[in-house]
Amino acid sequence: MNEAEMFETNRNTWNAKVPVHADSEFYDLANFRKGKSSLNKYEMEAFGEVCGQNILHLQCHFGQDTLSLARMGAKCTGVDISDEAIKLAKQLNTELKLDAKFVCCNVLDTSQFVSEKFDIVFTSYGTIGWLPDLKPWAQMISERLKPGGFFYIVEFHPIAWMFDYTVSPPEMKYGYQQKEAIYEEYQGTYADKNSKMVSKEYGWNHSLGEVISSLAEAGLQIEYLKEHDASPYDIFPGLIKNEEGVFEMPNKLYPLIFELKAIKNSTTEAMEF
Predict the structure, then answer these.
(1) pLDDT per residue over 211-270, tens digit each?
(2) I want to staple 57 with a disulfide (CB 3.0 to 4.6 A). Which of 78, 82, 100, 216 is the partner?
(3) Is residue 109 part of a domain?
(4) What is the pLDDT of residue 166?
């Protein structure tokens, strides 16, 4: 199967996930509609004041984070491969009387559909594992950033993706720097493990070195890389909730989350012409 067919398999799965996720406690749409933000402490601290900022949200699903930022006064554009997710995002945008824009495309093709440049480009929690190669992804991010703008990612740590979670207990099965696609087929989804839907997914592992190098090679300057024991989401087996209300491994053998911020400076812009 070629990459285009793998992307199509993933798109179909994400389309099937949308109604399941929209009805789930995980996404809590009822309280979101009442004004609850979907953003977590990591990204909130990284963003700072966003009012008036132009933000591009990559792989936005049905747009809760995009719309949460729009509620805070940012001018937001969300991108996702799932047409059903973008359809729901647009419905929520209209219902909540916000002014976010949503575009349905493969994230790697974003520059073909979005010509604006942004103060912030953002992606979070379970996104880069859907991409076979981070170099075109990083190049697109550089293209869409204004000089002085920054890219921010908060993501599950690549060590966590070395395990096969379809078996119990999870088995360390996949390479930290594995290049081959990983195919999984299982019933349910992280937001509703009891759902009858069948998830068919192709994913790719990316080391921290690959993330950093791809962004640096695209002309971005790494400001920081942080690793954290605690995840806002209880999606891995055996996690416990700590006193701060986030989830961590009892033995803390490896981090669950990393966050990275990278800046586009003016010399990068000059090199593009």
Answers:
(1) 999 999 999 999 999 999 999 999 999 999 999 999 999 999 999 999 999 999 876 554
(2) 78
(3) yes
(4) 86
Q: Mean pLDDT across the chain, nearest whole number?
A: 95
- Domains held by the chain: number: 1
Taking CB atoms within 8 Å and a gap of at least 24, the contacts of 238-242 are: 238/169
Q: Assign residue 109 the CATH number of its domain.
A: 3.40.50.150
Q: Is residue 193 part of a domain?
A: no
**Beta strand 75-80 pairing with 54-58:** parallel
User: Does residue 267 lie in a domain region?
Assistant: yes
Q: What is the dihedral of CA 70, 87, 108, 179, to 10 degrees?
A: 110
The arithmetic mean of pLDDT across residues 167-176, rounded, is 94
Question: What does the pLDDT read at residue 270?
Answer: 43
Indicate whether 178 belongs to any domain. no
Quote the domain boundaries for residue 108: 3-158+206-271
